Structures are given as C-alpha cells and as structure tokens.
Amino acid sequence: MSELDLENALVPIESHRSNHAGLDLLAFHVNTAESVLGCHPYTVHVDMDPLDRRAIVQGGWGAFAFIVLIFWPAGTFDYWQGWVFLGTFAASTIAFTVYMATHDRPLLERRMKAGPQYEQERSQKIIVSCVFLLFFASIVLAALDYRYGWSPVAPWLSILGDAVVALSFLFIFWVVRVNSFAASNIRVEKDQKVIDTGPYARVRHPMYAGAIWLFVGIPLALGSWWSIGLIVPCVPVLVWRLLDEERILQRDLPGYTEYMRRVRSRLVPFVW
Predict the structure, then answer these.
(1) Whether the Cβ atoms of residue 33 and residue 3 lie closer than 8 Å to each other
(2) Residue 184 · residue 245 · CB < 8 Å
(3) Which residues are registered as beta bridge partners of 13?
(4) Is 17 found in the same domain as 146?
C-alpha cells in the first residue's frame, strides 16, 4: 500500500457520538502515514462528556473508599465475605449507573448529587449526615466483627446477605424507572409531577422501603450479626427523613397533598 493510500484509508473521524455508551467522541486525530513509517508516534485525543467523567471519577473514589472501609478494619485482605460483597455492590451500582447514562442522563445527574452538601433544608442536611454515618458504621463494625470474631455468621447467610443487597438495588432500580425525579436530595424540579404508578401506587416512599434492607443485607454479607443492630437508630432517622420530605413536597409539589389522601401507606402497605 502506498503512503497516499494509507492517508486516504485512515482519515480523521470528527464528532462521532455514541448513544449507547453515553460518551461524546469529539475528536479522533490520527497522524497515520507518519506513525506507520515510524517518523512520529500517532496521537489520539478523546474528550469525554463531563457528566460521564464525573460518574467514572466518583465511582472510582467510591470503590477505593469501600476497599478501605472493609479491609482496613478487618485487618486482612483474606476476607472472602468482603470481596463477594464488594463485587455485588460494585456490579449493582455499575449496572445502575450504565442504565442511567444510556437511558436517563438527567436522572444520573440528580442521583450523583448525594450528600448533606446538596440538601437545601437544614433539617435534611442533619438527617443525611446521620444516614451516611450509620451506613459507613454498618460496614466498619461488620469488618471489625469479622476481625475479632464477636458474632460470626454462617457462610450461607453471608451469601443470602449478598442476595438481599442485590434485590434491594433491583427494587430501587424499579423505583427510578417509574420516577425519573427520584433524586438523591430533596428538591422539586420546575417540571416535576406527582408519580402514582408502579410502587408509588402502594406506598409513598418505595425507595426508602427498598433501601432499608441494605442495613440487613450488608451486615450479613460481611459476616456480622452485631452490625444489624444499627438498624435500630436508622429507623427513627428514616422516619424523620420521610416525614420532613412530605412536609416539603406538600409545600412545593402541586398535587402531592391529594396523592397522600389516595395512597395512605408510607413504607409498608396497610401498616404504615
């Protein structure tokens, strides 16, 4: 093949957008002839969508944080329960993120704004800080429990705990498919409407109903009975969260008061 043929065959590709990967390939410059002839190395410049970059960076830091929270207090990497849980949690969150990146990017942006710093109400800043503290404590206490053998769990129960974690994520996935406004913080968007289909037809806070099971699944997955006890302080914090959320939604979301009259249960159908 001649040098001219090479240049014609390997032309620059500009502004190619992949809807499936959720990434924008804005420039792909290849100095083809010179790279093949060995005169200069070819260069590839890829500009990633900022939202995708944030999701990848946030996911990377999250994985690092989980490794520290699990294996540092455990005092060893020889902790199969920790690795299986980490794989289960990572696979669930990655699948969740890929779905949002490819099918509902506004939802991805809303879900990434998690933490007390994104809450607008002072009460919610306090509540979310407590939830984060309890969540991380459930992981650290379970790892310490494994290290010192305070309350060991049978291997099959650890596997069951991983299944509970996966099912909890699956239920949350159902919730966000029905409600694209299910953000990580409490705020009302300008075009938001009341959702009363799917799980919202049975309970007013289905995401919390699914997420609370993480406080059961995670301790079992990590091989600890004692850390399940953290669900006791978690319940009043969760109740405070959803009651305060209902106050805000009644104030800011048209139609929510009528929805509360139609759907009486908050977390458990026919119970509360």
Answers:
(1) yes
(2) no
(3) 28
(4) no
Q: What is the pLDDT along the chain (272 residues), one digit of tens a residue?
A: 444 443 444 444 343 444 444 444 333 333 443 444 444 444 445 577 888 888 888 889 989 999 999 999 999 999 999 999 999 999 999 998 998 888 888 888 888 888 888 888 888 899 999 999 999 999 999 999 999 999 999 999 999 999 999 999 999 999 989 998 887 778 788 888 999 999 999 999 999 999 999 999 999 999 999 999 999 999 999 999 999 999 999 999 999 999 999 999 999 998 88
Angle between the 80-103 and 105-112 helix axes, to the nearest 10 degrees? 130
Length of the chain: 272
Which single residue is written with the structure tokens 């506004």? 106
Range(s) of the domain holding residue 239: 50-262
Ordered alpha helix ranges (H), the chain: 3-9, 32-37, 50-74, 80-103, 105-112, 122-148, 155-178, 206-211, 214-221, 231-252, 256-262
Residues 74 and 130 grouped into a single domain: yes
Distance between CA atoms of residues 139 and 134, nearest Å: 9
128: tokens are 């979310």
- Nearest one of 238, 240, 228, 235 to 137, comparing CA atoms: 228
What CATH number has the domain bearing residue 62? 1.20.120.1630
Q: Which amino acid is at 9?
A: A
Rg (CA), the chain: 24
Measured CA to CA, the distance from residue 179 to residue 166 in angstroms comes to 20
| 8 A C-beta contact, residue 235 and residue 272 | no
